[in-house]
Amino acid sequence: MVTRKEKKAAYDHARVAAKREQKAVYDKEYGKLHRSEKNAYALEWYRKHPEEVRNTRLMRTFKLTAAEWDVKLAAQDRKCAICKTDVPAGRGTWHTDHDHACCAGIKSCGKCVRGLLCRHCNSALGHLQDSPELLRAAAIYIEEWRLRHGKRIGDATS
Questions:
Q1: 135 CB contacts (<8 Å, ≥6 apart)?
Q2: Residue 5 per-residue DSSP state
Q3: 30 near 37, Cβ under 8 Å?
Q4: Between the N and C ends of the chain, which has fewer C-beta atoms within 10 Å?
Q5: pTM
Q6: pLDDT digits (tens, 9 = 90+) for 42-53
Q7: Do 88 and 94 touch, CB atoms closer than 8 A?
């Protein structure tokens, strides 16, 4: 036999679940109606709190604190780990390179972060699938073409 206390608990549980569902529907509708206001508020918050946004993004994506990231950049003499440029290009930010064999996708465990790269070097590694063999093959391809066409190996103007 079901006691009065058990009936009340079941009723309360169903009532709370129904209220939760109603609130979810309301929140969704409110979000649709006030999307531009919410977006403007979020954008303003991001502009007012750039360091907090940076810290959160670095921790979520690479498991690095901003201080650890800054130490990595300083250790590279504030230059790209590959081409040694001091201009990151693109949107003006350095790209955090990690080993995709360890952590596929854009997130990293933090232990496989290799260094900080300019946009061009980061894109090149990505297009060549982080493969040393493909990188060597690309270098040989360019060097052989330059030799056949009388260009010097160190000449950047091809």
A1: 125, 128
A2: H
A3: no
A4: N
A5: 0.69
A6: 999 999 999 999
A7: yes
User: Residues, the chain, total?
Assistant: 158
End-to-end Cα, the chain, rounded Å: 89
Would you list the domain boundaries of the chain? 5-125, 128-158
Helices (H), the chain: 4-33, 35-48, 50-62, 66-75, 119-127, 132-148
pLDDT tens digit sequence for 54-76:
999 999 999 999 999 999 999 99
Block residue for tokens 């190996």: 153
- Nearest to 158, CA basis, from 133, 141, 134, 137: 141
Residue with token string 């693109």: 90
Strand partners, 96: 116
Q: 98 has which bridge partners?
A: 113
| CA neighbor of 80 nearest in space, from 100, 66, 65, 94 | 94
Residue pair 146/155 in contact (Cβ under 8 Å)? The answer is yes
Helices 50-62, 35-48: crossing angle, 10 deg rounding: 90
Mapping DSSP to helix (H, G, I), strand (E, B) and coil, where does residue 116 land?
strand
- Distance between CA atoms of residues 28 and 40, nearest Å: 18
